[in-house]
Amino acid sequence: MLRRSFLGTALMAAALASLSPTPAAADDWKSDVNVIRFGVLSGENEKDRVQRYSAFEAYLEENLGVPVEIYTASSYDGVIQALAADQIEFAFLGSSAYAAAWTETNGGVEPLVSRQEDDGSTGYYSVVAVRCDSPYKSIEDLQGKTLAFADPDSTSGYAVPYFNLLKQGYNPETYFGATPFSGSHETGVLGVVNGQFDAAATYITNEISGVPQRMVEKGMIKAGEACWIWTSPEITSGPFTARKNLPGELKSTMKQLLLEVPQKNPEAFAKMTGNPKQVGWIEVDHERYAWIVEMREEIRKIRRNRGS
Length: 308
Known about the structure:
Layout: H1 2-19, H2 23-26, E1 36-40, H3 46-64, E2 68-72, H4 76-84, E3 90-92, H5 95-104, E4 109-117, E5 123-131, E6 147-148, H6 155-167, H7 172-175, H8 185-193, E7 199-206, E8 209-210, H9 211-217, E9 226-231, E10 235-236, E11 239-243, H10 248-264, H11 266-273, E12 278-283, H12 290-305
Helix pairs in contact: 3-10, 3-11, 4-5, 5-12, 10-11
């Protein structure tokens, strides 16, 4: 009886061990990946991007036990192409940039987590910003004027405003006098404030968090200089994305570190998000972003048919 009980216990322990990877097994990925690189999109200038994510970089190095590097590029496509070429392992992407990466890699990327606000929401909004002291109070006032988009792979800075304005009867190709790409959200808003553009597409999360608000905090513009006159429907927040061909243990470890950073390192979390309303992350999958892939394809067809 004692022997049978001991045998049963041993078998159960062995079964549990087979289901839960040992620390050695969990670290097997380190033999193939000796440095972790994560990309950050060009929503703001490079210096501020690196500075904002430096504490998170240190948090990852401490917990992963390998060197971690921040990867920046001058355009969204630079980060997307780096993922496609296996030059970086992970990236913080917007919804449209994720969709672009998914298409570019034939489904070779996967979303791990996305943002969650303190009210439970997991989205944000595209807005059209103008100078507060300008005569532009609605989209109608911008007919024949210059509306700057941020980047061709930006969700809130291009895909969503382009698509929704088109559906509302304001064909960006013909309604506005010009629709240049500014290169980044901050450059677009700064161009509006300095008179280079009449309006610019950017994003806000809520009334106290977003690109214009962050620029005020950084001293790039003054409070009351940039206002928004159009707001999109809610956009699904973009994901922290992994290359699908990475070791499963590395992806699951990275996901766990993202989910735990608000508690384990609140300072790094607050600094990299720059959003006092964000309280953490939620796990996500590709289905959450399938509609963005479809929207991008529809925009591509529209532009191709118009010869743009």
